[in-house]
């Protein structure tokens, strides 16, 4: 579903900085992949390049068979809207809209009938446990409910790839667990393909596979083969060798 081929990214400036160096990554359809690495290692840069928000200096990003960065500006905008779903740390909901209006927003830009919009929103809201708050405004709901709303919005148009940037960064541990369980459920039951950047090893332990980036390069990767608790411990062990402590990894979230 996603192929990152030899991607490098150099930020030009007074002093140019190589944030990614010849990075390769393949994500299969239906995989839930975590991206971890110390602060400044290039995670956000990778996410921005994959989400087509930023262009790589060299290399290719192929999503669902399409070479994303070679599309024209107009086609790229459409591609992003139709094929990608985004979940952010700070939810990015539109404050003036209700929960339901936020969720159906991506569909209103397409030619989807009201009946179909309602069917989709009801099905997803049921699945995510937010059916009872559909008519509330976003300032009337909790952080966990806001993130579930954002997830519903990210999947309502059945994107090929869901990109999540620290989706639990602003949540307390109970709400974070709920959101991660929902992401895992969407992955397992709906076959959603997901890439999630996180500093949190507990969050990463919900993934099928975690890749570790250091200095813009692939450092190592782990596949979950055992219980979640064992995977968590394996992730912690890599974090120790990569040179950062859990504190250092969590610092940005505070
Ligand atoms: N627009 C930019 N111009 C110049 N340098 C940049 C720019 N954006 C990021 N960088 C640099 O590129 C490197 C990678 O940054 P990036 O934000 O991808 O790291 P990260 O792993 O996401 O870090 P964090 O976990 O702290 O968010 C850092 O050294 C950063 O200072």
TrEMBL record:
Residues 2-240 form the ABC transporter domain. The keyword Transcription regulation does not apply. The keyword Transit peptide does not apply. Pfam families: ABC_tran (PF00005). GO terms for molecular function: ATP binding. Gene3D superfamilies: P-loop containing nucleotide triphosphate hydrolases (3.40.50.300). InterPro entries: AAA+_ATPase, ABC_transporter-like_ATP-bd, ABC_transpr_LolD-like, MacB-like_ATP-bd, P-loop_NTPase. Keywords: ATP-binding, Nucleotide-binding, Transport. This is ABC transporter ATP-binding protein. The lineage of its organism: Bacteria, Bacillati, Bacillota, Bacilli, Bacillales.
């Amino acid at each position: 579903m996603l192929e990152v081929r030899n991607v490098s990214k150099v930020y030009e400036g007074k002093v140019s900085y190589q944030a990614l160096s010849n990075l390769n990554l393949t994500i299969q359809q239906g995989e839930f992949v975590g991206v971890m690495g110390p602060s400044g290692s290039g995670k956000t840069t990778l996410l921005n390049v994959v989400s087509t928000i930023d262009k790589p200096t060299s290399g290719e990003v192929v999503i669902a068979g399409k070479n994303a960065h070679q599309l024209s500006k107009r086609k790229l905008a459409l591609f992003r809207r139709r094929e990608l779903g985004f979940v952010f740390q700070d939810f990015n909901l539109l404050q003036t809209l209700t929960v339901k209006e936020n969720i159906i927003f991506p569909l209103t830009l397409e030619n989807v009938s009201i009946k179909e919009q309602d069917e989709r929103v009801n099905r997803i809201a049921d699945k995510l446990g937010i059916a009872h708050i559909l008519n509330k405004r976003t300032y009337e709901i909790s952080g966990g409910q806001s993130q579930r709303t954002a997830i519903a919005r990210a999947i309502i148009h059945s994107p090929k790839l869901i990109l999540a940037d620290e989706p639990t960064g602003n949540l307390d541990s109970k709400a974070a667990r709920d959101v991660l369980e929902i992401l895992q459920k969407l992955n397992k039951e709906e076959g959603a393909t997901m890439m999630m950047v996180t500093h949190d090893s507990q969050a990463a332990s919900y993934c099928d596979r975690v890749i570790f980036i250091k200095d813009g390069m692939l450092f190592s990767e782990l596949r979950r083969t055992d219980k979640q608790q064992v995977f968590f411990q394996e992730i912690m062990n890599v974090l120790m060798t990569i040179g950062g402590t859990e504190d250092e990894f969590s610092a940005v979230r505070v």
